[in-house]
Recover the amino acids of this structure.
């Protein structure tokens, strides 16, 4: 009888294992929603170099993070990013800027050596997250550099977007925030790109060092004899 109980135990364990697998929820993969950007038509539009674009270290992971009411972050149990979040951000901003500026000459850094941008966008994203009961939040800072690399404009940005609470709704809200950021950037890029390039003042040629000659030496007046009308008598 004891020998018959062992197969029954194994069979029951297998059935419970299959039941556990049947209720396990598969992990969902998400990508940022870039909206519906149109195709830029101008091949000779404003030249923009996008980058470097830096993303906060805590976002450099596959797991979708959830912001809690106390400000802490926890890993989502049923969602993660389908690839690199940084790469998704780059491509979303690139397509949005090219569309809003109507220019095919919007490229990611580093650019080719022969590419001379009218404006360079240096961007730092320090926060991009949300929670089931927390809105999607984007904190960023951007700087705009002209053709000479001089900073022409800069701004600190804080944006929020409500959502329905699900992971899919949160990801969509984060994508909307980045689209709003691209709209601000495009509006700031246009006046900087339109600024004329101020010509540099010609530098005066350096004068060669003058060799000192005998003529340049200070002249010492010659001593002249002093004449007197006094006579000298000898006794």
């Amino acid at each position: 009888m004891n020998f018959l109980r062992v197969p029954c135990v194994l069979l029951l364990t297998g059935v419970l294992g299959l039941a556990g697998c049947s209720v396990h929820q598969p992990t969902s993969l998400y990508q940022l929603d870039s909206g519906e950007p149109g195709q830029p038509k101008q091949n000779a539009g404003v030249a923009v170099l996008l980058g470097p674009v830096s993303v906060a270290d805590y976002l450099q992971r596959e797991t979708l993070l959830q912001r809690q009411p106390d400000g802490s972050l926890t890993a989502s149990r049923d969602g993660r990013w389908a690839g690199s979040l940084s790469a998704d951000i780059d491509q979303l901003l690139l397509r949005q800027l090219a569309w809003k500026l109507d220019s095919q000459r919007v490229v990611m850094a580093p650019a080719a050596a022969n590419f001379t941008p009218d404006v360079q966008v240096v961007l730092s994203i320090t926060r991009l997250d949300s929670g089931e009961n927390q809105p999607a939040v984007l904190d960023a800072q951007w700087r705009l550099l002209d053709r000479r690399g001089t900073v022409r404009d800069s701004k600190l940005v804080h944006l929020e977007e409500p959502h329905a609470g699900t992971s899919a709704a949160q990801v969509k809200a984060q994508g909307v925030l980045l689209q709003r950021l691209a709209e601000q950037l495009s509006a700031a890029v246009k006046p900087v790109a339109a600024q004329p390039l101020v010509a540099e003042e010609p530098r005066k040629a350096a004068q060669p060092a003058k060799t000192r000659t005998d003529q340049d030496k200070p002249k010492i007046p010659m001593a002249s004899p002093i004449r007197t009308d006094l006579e000298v008598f000898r006794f």
Observations:
- The two ends are 170 Å apart (CA to CA).
- Residues 41 and 102 are 6 Å apart (CA to CA).
- The chain is about 30% helix and 25% strand.
